[in-house]
Amino acid sequence: HFIKNDAQETPISNGLLRNNIKEFFEDFLIFNYSNANRKIPEITILENNEIISDSIWEYKSIYSDQWILFDASQSNQLQQSFYFQQNNLFKKDFIMNINNNLYNISLLQFLCSQISNLSNVKHLWIRCRGSSIENFNFYSKWQIMFEKLSSIKSSKSVSLEVFYINNNSNDHIQIKLNHWLYLNDDINQQIDNAVNYRKKYLYIYLPFINNHLFKFNLKTFSFANNDNTITGFIRWIPTFISNDNQTIIDNFQPLTNTNILPFFRTYSNNHHIHQSTTIITNKYSVSYISYILT
Questions:
Q1: DSSP of 215-236
Q2: Comparing C-alpha atoms, which of 245, 218, 248, 246 is closest to residue 233?
Q3: Number of domains into which the chain is organized
Q4: Fewer beta carbons under 10 A from the terminal one: N or C of the chain?
């Protein structure tokens, strides 16, 4: 839908002249996340090669299924936390006041941990609806959380444990509700490609759950099977590297050093990165842009 003809026109630009085709593209594509006035896109995110602030920041209690919007000031603070001078140390966490309670915000795990009431520590998961490439120009990894599964009774028992799916495994795994599950490289790539092409919906077979077909809504960051007996949420979390040894780190393992930074596309073009758990550097065969903000 972004391919240009000899007159440098795309199917989208031609379709705008007909209401039924225009409505199709309005449902097929994601124009924006933050409801800002943006024209209908005619190139992919990578072809646009420009950083645009277009995201929605949300949080939810680890015991709840309801995502809540951060207010404008909090959203701006989260957005700005990734806009920093590359010659400065990246601050992986900071303090934020949420509903009159102080929380430590972990940018590694996208997790808020209450610090104003240590006798009853509350935790909130964070997500950013939007493209990590378009907003910040760094790579990310996709996770899913099952909210409802017909064969599993709903439970209030949750933890901060995160699970992984092996790249070469098609085995059925035991699904736990309310836990984040890292998707494998192949599924990550499918979602990244869809986001790059600004697609609103993506259909994916999940081999680890009886190869069911799921509809991923990349605007609402949710997924469901055909009859909605299995539903859940999706999010991305930033990919981080050690700036000392150029190794991709595990966001949910204790850090051995504090000199880390998000895996910017500019960085991968200029450094050899040691791959440990996922293949990232060759995900996009495009030119790289400078990411030094002043």
A1: EEETTTTEEEETTSSEEEEEEE
A2: 218
A3: 3
A4: C
Q: Which position has the higher pLDDT, 99 or 17? A: 99
Q: Give residue-wise pLDDT tens across range 141-172.
A: 999 999 998 776 655 567 788 988 876 655 66
| Domain co-membership, 87 together with 117 | yes
Q: What is the pLDDT of residue 156?
A: 57
**Residue 35 lies in domain:** 11-48
More confident residue, 189 or 118: 189
Residue 142: φ, ψ to 5°: -95, 140
Residue 206 lies in a domain: yes
Look-up: residue for tokens 């901060």?
Answer: 160
- The mean per-residue pLDDT over the stretch 277-287 comes to 35
Over residues 66-73, the mean pLDDT reads 97
Listed in sequence order, the residues at least 6 apart from 186 whose beta carbon sits closer than 8 Å to its beta carbon are 167
CATH number at 104 reads 3.30.720.50
Backbone CA torsion sign across 80, 50, 284, 265: negative
In this structure, the answer to whether residues 69 and 29 fall within a common structural domain is: no
**Domain contains 287:** no
